[in-house]
Design goal:
Structural class: mainly alpha
Distance between the termini: 30 Å
Helix content: over 70%
Radius of gyration: 15 Å
Number of domains: 1
Shape: globular
């Protein structure tokens, strides 16, 4: 039960962090590209890769990965923002956002994993 409560609390903290980081990025970078969600998802991918590279396991990984980072990153917002770009017929921006998010997300997770493996 304590683990579940920890995951819920850390998920809430991750969601708050997502809100604040996304807002801070959006206030500095404007335009049709959804920079806030892009930065949040890349930093979340990097940190999750770092945790894996550091061999964080069991309850600690559940708390950090499932709790904090799943509350921080967001697949649903990524998809909604892509649909909004499609509604605006911003096809190039939408393609850049979708493909760039996937490629950069994998690269960020890989970089975190490599760094974690080096540090452990």
């Amino acid at each position: 039960m304590t683990l579940w409560l920890g995951i819920a609390l850390l998920g809430a903290l991750g969601a708050l962090a997502r809100f604040h980081v996304g807002a801070a990025v959006r206030s500095r970078l404007t335009g049709p590209f959804p920079y806030g969600t892009f930065v949040v998802n890349l930093t979340g991918s990097f940190v999750l890769g770092l945790l894996i590279g550091l061999s964080v396991q069991d309850d600690a990984l559940l708390l950090a990965g499932t709790g904090l980072l799943s509350g921080y990153t967001t697949f649903s917002t990524w998809m909604v923002e892509a649909l909004r770009l499609a509604e605006q017929r911003a096809w190039r921006v939408m393609a850049l956002y979708l493909l760039g998010s996937m490629a950069a997300g994998v690269a960020a997770a890989g970089a975190g994993w490599l760094l974690g493996g080096t540090l452990s």
